[in-house]
Every structure is written in structure tokens, then in C-alpha cells.
Amino acid sequence: MKKLSYIVLLFCLVFNACSKPESFEYREVKNIKLQHLGFSKSTVSMDIVYYNPNNFSVNLKKVECQVFLNQKYLGDYLLDTTIHVSSKSVFVVPASISFDMMDVVKKGFNILINKEALIGVKGKTRVGKSGCYFNVPIQYETKFKLPIPY
User: Fold this and answer.
1) CA 98, 104, 110, 112: dihedral to nearest 10 degrees?
2) CATH code of 80's domain
3) What are the pLDDT tens digits along the chain (150 aa)?
4) In-domain check, residue 76
5) What residues does 63 pair with on adjacent strands?
6) 45: Cβ–Cβ under 8 A, 6 or more apart, which residues?
7) Which of 87, 97, 86, 145 is nearest to 121 (CA)?
């Protein structure tokens, strides 16, 4: 009987350690910088700020997302590194996105007129700890005022 209770206790510990984490909460985009401007391809870097609502720290591995500009596909974002995230904390994920400038010109004329863009991200990341990792969806949209000085 004592052996059975140890097995049940071990099962409960493993089950709790591998409980599925909640999705991160998007907070804001900061430090947007134009890294490369070209006629065919351009690259923008930024810091995306999130909040970890979980009561435990986790590791964030491999982020795969599609980026949308005014609900139209712009490009892909891939981060293949591990970031340690403390419990109940705000953290920053660096992002660098390359995109076709001709697509932006075709799709984004309204952006120049309104000086505002709807930026959306949809994808997934691997989140977990102690060898238990889960796919957690990422999805958010935010309006961004363009810093155009005219």
C-alpha cells in the first residue's frame, strides 16, 4: 500500500510540473528600427513586450509567427532560441522581420494617408520547463502610429 501511495504522489508531482502554461499576454511593441531599406527587401527590428501570467517560470523556445499589416500577410517571423521567463513577469522578445517592399507599397498606401497601421501576429511557440514543452498559440493585433514627420 505504501508503494502505491508513492506512485500516486510521483504521478501528481509529474502531472503538476507538466501542466499546460497559459498564453502570454501581449503588452506593446517598442524600439522599432529600420535595419535595412531596399527597393526589393527591407528589414525592421523591434522588441515585443509580453507578460507571463503563469505562477511558475517557463522557458520559451522557438517562436514561429506570420506577421500581418492591415490584415494582409506581410512576412514570417522566426526566433530559434531559448528565453527564460520568470513567473508573473514582463519580458521582451526581440524580433526582426524581412519583407518585400513592393507588397508594402501595394498594400500599404492607406498607411501613409492615415499614418496608422494595424499590425497583427499569429503563430505558436514552445513553452515549458523541466523537459515538458507545449505549443502555445500567439495571436494579437495592435494599432501602431507611424513616426512619419510630415
Assistant:
1) 70
2) 2.60.40.10
3) 555 444 444 444 444 555 566 778 888 878 888 888 887 888 888 888 889 888 888 888 888 888 888 888 888 888 888 889 998 999 998 888 887 877 777 766 666 666 777 888 898 888 888 778 888 888 888 787 766 554
4) yes
5) 79, 125
6) 31, 32, 33, 35, 94, 95, 96, 97
7) 97
- Check if the beta carbon of residue 59 is closer than 8 Å to that of residue 129: yes
> From CA 36, how far away is CA 105, in angstroms rounded?
16
Whether pTM exceeds 0.70 = no
Element (H, E) at 70: none
Query: Which range of residues forms the domain containing residue 107?
Result: 21-145
Identify the helix (H) or strand (E) that includes residue 94.
strand 90-100
Does some domain include residue 15?
no
Q: How many domains does the chain have?
A: 1
CA 8, CA 30: separation in Å to the nearest integer?
Answer: 47
